Amino acid sequence: MSTFPGNDEIEIIDGVEMIRTSSGSLIALSRLRPDTLLADRTARDLVDRMRTLAEHNAREKQAIFDDLEAYQQLVFERYGARLGGRRGGLTVSSYGDRRKIEMKTADYSRVTAALPAAQSLMNEILNDLTGDANADLRALIMAAFERDEKSGRVNVQRLNSLKRLELNHPKWPDARRAIEDAIEPAGSKTGIRAYYRDNNDQEYRQIVVDFSRL
Q1: Helix or strand or coil: residue 135?
Q2: Which residues have a Cβ under 8 Å from the Cβ of 161 and sit 6 or more positions away?
Q3: Per the confidence metrics, is the pTM higher than 0.85?
Q4: Residues 57-97: pLDDT tens digits?
Q5: Is 24 left (phi over 0), alpha (psi -120 to 50) or beta?
């Protein structure tokens, strides 16, 4: 089933092709200028092609996951093992070692309301510990709290790295606890990557197919 809405922009009324405008009213196609018709046809045709491609990729993604699941099920049945978690991932290689496909599960996290508290505590600690000579250290530490300009998200890995610091300050234990509380699990995502090489002396090259948004 299509995941996209149907095309309801063109209707035939009393044998006349009508197109629906952005405001919802209808106008006969014959009343539109040729350049307007060309733009309309180009936009609708290309979007429909992209829709078809996206739906095809979604079906292929599911089929690839199903095939890998079936393969792993057969392997587990062969050794009488239970089909359990896949945190360690799965790699299937061709006999000649020129093709391989990998399936990996990655956990991802998000920041919580404790983030401003952690940032405030780190500011207090840095104010006590650093002076103008250590401006680079302050910039490095506080950069972990900055949000990406495009996504608006905090880099959780960089924030997590602050917990490895050993600071000689009475408020450091509170700051570290605030940093820990500022990060919480948000789920996991399983991804698939395929690689190939023409001969065994070459490095593997990844086949780029962006399934992540499907």
Answers
A1: helix
A2: 144
A3: no
A4: 999 999 999 999 899 888 888 887 655 545 557 899 999 99
A5: left
